[in-house]
């Protein structure tokens, strides 16, 4: 079975797409925060069974609210094979922030460029091929309310599941030589704990630690020795000094 998660900013059409894919009828509404819990459904496509999980909307992978925590925990801890990032095509710039964060996860990402009807109606132009090239992942235009593009989206999910997990380093943000060197050092320390390696994407965890993320720090405290922790803390200080 392929496990695929639908993630995206609030009110972009995730649940509308979920309902179309699974035949279920979860609540949709034209305001943010409609979905507050994760919901799972299933479908079969190209003879493959796919479990799709609809998540609450989130702007980032730093948990600022309970809704964001639900989405982030699912992506980080459950590690679905395919992450479908639902993007509001009429609000590309804001939405792509989360997309960049998702590229840091070692996951197979598929971008659904939703509200394609509104993009057209407003005469906006988006070069889908170029966007796909820049992100290094498939980009599929969709209109959740009519179902346009959803067959292509299902094809892309099946294709993505068959691929080796994308390596975050290749496509993700590059933070510049100095910071990248420090990220690698933290990654080396993370690799000393099999439990951490098993549970989290290493680069992602390293970046979260350097951000001072509470959950990341807590997990690490439980899994590394005090001298390893001290080393990480000194790296965090070096990062803080570098970005001042
Ligand atoms: N025109 C148009 N409207 C859409 C499209 N997709 C979703 N909508 C509308 O956008 C609104 C939000 O849809 P939802 O599916 O509830 O969005 P969501 O991302 O699940 O929202 P949260 O759960 O609150 O994060 C609803 O009124 C949908 O009917 C689309 O492709 N085109
Ligand atoms: Mg929803």
Distance between the termini: 47 Å
CATH architecture of the largest domain: 3-Layer(aba) Sandwich
Total number of distinct structural domains: 2
Rg from Cα: 19 Å
What does this molecule look like?
The protein is built from twelve helices and six strands. It has 244 residues and is an alpha/beta fold. It has a six-stranded mixed β-sheet, with helices on both faces. The longest helix is centred in the last third of the chain and has 18 residues. The mean pLDDT is 90. Magnesium ion binds next to helix 1.
Summary?
With 244 residues, this protein is of the alpha/beta class. The protein has helices at 14-22, 66-78, 92-103, 116-121, 128-135, 150-161, 168-171, 177-190, 194-199, 202-210, 214-223, 226-243, and strands at residues 2-8, 39-45, 48-54, 82-88, 108-114, 139-141.
């Amino acid at each position: 079975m392929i496990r695929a998660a639908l993630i995206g900013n609030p009110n972009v059409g995730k649940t509308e797409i979920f309902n179309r894919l699974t035949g279920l009828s979860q609540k949709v509404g034209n305001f943010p925060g409609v979905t507050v819990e994760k919901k799972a459904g299933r479908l079969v496509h190209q003879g493959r069974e796919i479990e799709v999980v609809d998540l609450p909307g989130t702007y980032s992978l730093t948990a600022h609210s309970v809704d964001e925590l639900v989405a982030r925990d699912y992506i980080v801890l459950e590690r679905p094979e395919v992450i479908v990032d639902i993007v509001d095509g009429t609000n590309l710039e804001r939405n792509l922030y989360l997309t960049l964060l998702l590229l840091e996860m070692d996951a197979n990402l598929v971008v659904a460029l939703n509200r394609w009807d509104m993009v057209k109606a407003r005469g906006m132009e988006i070069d889908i091929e170029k966007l796909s090239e820049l992100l290094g992942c498939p980009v599929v235009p969709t209109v959740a309310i009519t179902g346009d593009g959803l067959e292509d989206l299902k094809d892309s999910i099946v294709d993505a599941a068959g691929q080796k997990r994308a390596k975050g380093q290749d496509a993700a943000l590059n933070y510049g030589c100095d910071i990248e060197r420090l990220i690698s050092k933290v990654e080396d320390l993370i690799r000393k704990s099999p439990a951490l390696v098993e549970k989290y994407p290493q680069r992602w965890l390293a970046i979260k630690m350097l951000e001072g993320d509470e959950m990341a720090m807590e997990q690490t405290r439980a899994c590394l020795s005090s001298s390893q922790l001290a080393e990480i803390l000194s790296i965090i200080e070096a990062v803080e000094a570098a970005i001042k």
